[in-house]
Design brief:
Elements: H1 3-37, E1 57-59, E2 65-72, E3 80-85, H2 96-99, H3 103-109, E4 111-116, H4 132-145, E5 152-157, H5 159-170, E6 175-181, H6 194-201, H7 206-217, H8 222-227, H9 246-255, H10 258-264, H11 270-280, E7 302-307, H12 315-324, E8 328-333, H13 346-354
Parallel strand pairs: 3-4, 3-5, 5-6, 6-7, 7-8
Antiparallel strand pairs: 1-2, 2-4
Length: 359
């Protein structure tokens, strides 16, 4: 066979070879992308090598469990029953209305307080289908299994405060009252004036703007976005000092509990903090600013507490919510940041305001 003939055959086979190489490269890229985008499964509680179960837990109707911790007076001796809903990257062990309230207040007002790990946090089983409604129903089940009675109080902090909107929407008949403590706002709630929400949104650090865009528009990319190394991830997750007010920096040392930090994310970051972002800033089935008064006969009260120097939750949007919902008792604290509940006397003030007790 001549050299010219060999070259001709080689040239004819090249397109097929290039296609095979392209196909192999594409398959390899897709395999890499799938691995990078797909969050690892949560570490199963109580499984061999998995996180230990040390807390009391209730079993929900769907088979999942919620871990909880009780504070204050025994349930059967208490006059007022509170459920505390923790914030972002936290757990049942950070119930400040129990840990920061004075023993005298607990005793004199007859307080029973229970904090629980929200799904995927601490020792509560994950809920990959979690919504504001499902969490509200979980709280109702917890109250029933612990025997808290027909009505109970709820206090939600930060992302837990945002969750309280779901309770006011779906189980208002079970609430004796509610306190939203610097509740996170969703910039995409439909009733916010576009200019107001836009102005508040762009006051965030650029990496936080992008983190929320991803959580809202492409939630399936949240795990990759928060773990990749090309762009800076959420400054909230990183506890950046840039998002702390002067008061927050003073209180941070008081809030840090090294023994609790590992416990919070022990099932994995995706089913805890990432899912929090996806739900909190995702597409809601209702707009909290359009809720009706849950206590039309003044049988209870709703309080919203906000610091005017909070760098995580914009005070301008909280003011708007308070104006839209005149049945809310709004408390704006000058000079306060996001961690103000840990300031001396604040947790007592929150509880006493909820119970209409004079300080």
């Amino acid at each position: 066979m001549s050299a010219a003939s060999t070259r001709t055959q080689t040239q004819k086979s090249n397109p097929k070879s290039f296609f095979l190489i392209y196909l192999v490269v594409m398959v390899a890229c897709l395999a890499w992308a799938d691995k990078a985008l797909r969050p690892p499964p949560p570490k199963l509680l109580g499984s061999p090598g998995g996180p230990l179960i040390t807390a009391p837990r209730v079993k929900l109707k769907d088979g999942r469990h919620l871990a909880y911790k009780e504070y204050g007076l025994p349930n059967e001796k208490a006059k007022h029953k509170f459920i505390f809903i923790h914030g972002f990257d936290s757990s049942r062990l950070r119930a400040f209305i129990a840990t920061e309230v004075s023993p005298d207040t607990i005793e004199s007002l007859g307080l029973y307080i229970v904090g629980f790990d929200r799904p995927g946090y601490g020792e509560s089983d994950p809920d990959p289908n979690r919504t504001p409604k499902s969490l509200a129903l979980n709280v109702e089940e917890l109250a029933d299994q612990l025997g808290l009675g027909q009505k109970f109080y709820v206090v939600g902090y930060s992302m837990g405060g945002e969750a309280v909107w779901g309770l006011l929407k779906y189980i208002p008949h079970r609430l004796a009252g509610a306190s939203l403590i610097t509740p996170v706002v969703n910039y995409w709630w439909s009733s916010f004036p576009a200019n107001l929400s836009r102005e508040a949104y762009y006051k965030q650090l650029p990496q936080d703007q992008w983190s929320l865009r991803v959580a809202h528009y492409t939630p399936w990319l949240t795990y990759w976005w928060q773990t990749q190394k090309l762009f800076p991830p959420s400054s909230v997750i990183a506890y950046s000092p840039e998002i702390m007010s002067p008061q927050d920096k003073e209180l941070m040392a008081k809030c840090e509990k090294p023994e609790n930090a590992v416990h919070v994310r022990q099932q994995g970051v995706h089913e805890s903090i990432h899912r929090d972002m996806m739900i909190g800033f995702g597409k809601w089935e209702f707009d909290p600013t359009e809720l009706e008064n849950p206590f039309p006969k003044n049988e209870g009260t709703v309080h919203l507490w906000q610091g005017d120097e909070d760098m995580l939750v914009p005070v301008t949007l909280q003011r708007y919510i308070a104006q839209r919902l005149p049945w809310i008792q709004y408390h704006e604290l000058p000079g306060a940041g996001h961690l103000f509940p840990y300031a001396k006397g604040m947790s007592d003030a929150i509880v006493k305001a909820q119970l209409s007790v004079e300080n």
